[in-house]
Amino acid sequence: MEPDYQKYRDIVDKAKDLPTLSSIVHRLNEMIRNPNTSAADIGLLIAQDVALAGTTLKLVNSAFYGLSQKVNSVTHAIVILGFKKVKNIALAASILNAFKNQNQTDFDYSGFWEHSIGTATASEILATALKSPYTDEAFISGLLHDQGKLILVQYFPDEFQKIRHLIADERITMQEAEQRVLGFDHSLIGTWLAEKWKFPEHLTLAIRMHHKPLMASQHSELIHLVHTADILCRALDIGNGGDPYICELNQQVWTQMNLSSERLDELLGKIMDSMKNVSEFLDLVRQ
Ligand SMILES: [Fe+2]
Ligand SMILES: [Fe+2]
């Protein structure tokens, strides 16, 4: 039977209490595409939203970025970290803010965000190690890859309870359980939210394809990074991925990355180390 996509998509599209993204974030996305935009233009725009600017600076100055000097303005942050990175930090700040204070049911929000931040960190570390052109986008893509789960918990609570029971009773992965109950999984729900929020295409695709990395015809390198980072975090037991099972790492993706076991060990060590420096990110959603 064909799943009733429209019924569920309508719930997401019409949800009134769904977090809204600051209009500044939408303008940032537009400005970044314009080659004439200067660091000062971006700094001025972010500074218009005091809360967003404050959170962005808090993250920029967090141990995660390990800067040797304190950064006091968004323009200064752009000079040091670059346009794309600061834009993505501002986007992360606004999304973490939008999702804070959610305490629906007995869902493990803390574990969810730890898994998301772990995947973000691992995506960035992998991107850097592989000299990927997606180094600046990797963190935000990893951070949001499972955002559909938040919608599932909040807007489809009955289905979510069925999914939980199936995971426990049948010992299957969360995606398999979602497929059985809904006919689709959280990657599609996350895509609806990405489209509603007008995320850039690479980010929308990373959310949509993270469980079927070979099906992407565009931005496949970014999708492969997030797919691999997700599974590495599960293997390292970082946070809670929604079920006790580790999905299979796509062999073709893994072979293409061409990482020796020594190199992999080194990267896993780096991921564990950088997880010690993400408390500012976690604090944002725990407040
Ligand atoms: Fe997922
Ligand atoms: Fe995940």
Number of strands: 0
- Shape category: globular
Look at the helices and sheets and give the structural class: mainly alpha
Distance between the ends: 43 Å
| Amount of beta strand | under 5%
Classify the fold: give the CATH topology of the largest domain.
Answer: Hypothetical protein af1432
Rg estimate, integer Å: 18 Å
Number of domains: 2
Q: What CATH first level of the largest domain would be assigned?
A: Mainly Alpha
Q: How would you sum up the major sheet?
A: none
Quick gist of this model?
The protein is mainly α. About 70% of the residues lie in helices and about 0% in strands.
Question: Could you characterize the architecture of this molecule?
Answer:
The chain is mostly helical. It has two domains: 12-99, no CATH class; 104-287, Hypothetical protein af1432. Helix content is 68%, strand content 0%. It has 17 helices and no strands. The protein has helices at 5-14, 23-33, 39-47, 50-60, 74-81, 83-99, 109-129, 135-144, 147-155, 157-170, 174-182, 186-196, 201-209, 220-235, 251-257, 261-274, 279-286. Bound molecules: fe (ii) ion (2 copies). One fe (ii) ion (FE2) binds next to helix 12.
Helix/strand layout:
Layout: H1 5-14, H2 23-33, H3 39-47, H4 50-60, H5 74-81, H6 83-99, H7 109-129, H8 135-144, H9 147-155, H10 157-170, H11 174-182, H12 186-196, H13 201-209, H14 220-235, H15 251-257, H16 261-274, H17 279-286
Helix pairs in contact: 1-12, 2-6, 3-5, 4-6, 5-6, 6-8, 7-8, 7-14, 7-16, 7-17, 8-13, 8-14, 9-12, 10-11, 12-13, 13-14
This protein binds fe (ii) ion (2 copies).
